[in-house]
Recover the amino acids of this structure.
């Protein structure tokens, strides 16, 4: 048998009869959001001044970044779940969140005097950010890795990294509702570190658990 035919056959064997992968992924996305929300509301909850904060551009900007990241990473993860995955077409979407961050940081540096840049970058809750984004994202990551087992990714580490990126985007979106630090400088630094931690964990987890 040709190698490509063998890979496609193995991929087909992982699909459970009567259960489409669209249904599986929809369930995974819904479950991830519910699990992340449950952890968020049990451990943190929204910030007290969220109504007033929602009227500011900096606060809303955080959700634009994290939402774009979660959506693009989830779409890429779905594609990467199959051996014949072609991810190059998804790269522009994965670049949206980083580009938004770069634009936000540039505008922040222009708008604020240089003597307060460091204070805005450090913020007041960096340790909380590094703690709770991974905690909120652990359950969604586990669910995504479990879902990847329904596919047949030829590059498990890459698929797992995308799962971690998607889980990180979801977790960061919830955490953003609690975080009092709205500066793009803070988001670019601490949110990125926290999400990258989940991305690395996803890559490692997939190498161990998502193999065929």
């Amino acid at each position: 048998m040709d190698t490509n035919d063998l890979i496609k056959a193995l991929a087909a064997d992982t699909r459970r009869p009567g259960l489409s992968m669209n249904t599986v992924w929809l369930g995974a996305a819904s479950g991830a959001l519910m699990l992340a929300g449950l952890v968020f509301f049990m451990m943190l909850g929204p910030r007290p001044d969220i109504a007033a904060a929602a009227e500011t551009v900096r606060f809303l900007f955080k959700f634009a970044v994290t939402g774009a990241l979660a959506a693009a990473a989830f779409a890429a993860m779905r594609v990467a779940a199959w051996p014949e995955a072609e991810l190059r077409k998804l790269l522009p979407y994965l670049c949206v969140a980083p580009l938004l961050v770069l634009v936000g940081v540039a505008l922040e540096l222009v708008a604020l005097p240089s003597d307060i840049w460091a204070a805005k970058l450090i913020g007041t809750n960096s340790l909380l950010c590094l703690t709770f984004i991974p905690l909120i994202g652990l359950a969604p990551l586990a669910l995504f890795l479990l879902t990847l087992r329904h596919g047949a990714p030829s590059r498990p580490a890459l698929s797992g990294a995308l799962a971690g990126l998607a889980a990180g985007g979801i977790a960061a979106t919830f955490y953003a509702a609690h975080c009092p630090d709205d500066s793009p400088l803070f988001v670019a630094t601490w949110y990125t570190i926290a999400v990258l931690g989940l991305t690395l964990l996803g890559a490692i987890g997939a190498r161990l658990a998502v193999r065929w």
About this structure: The mean pLDDT is 87. Residues 137 and 171 are 5 Å apart (CA to CA). The two ends are 18 Å apart (CA to CA). The chain is about 75% helix and 0% strand.
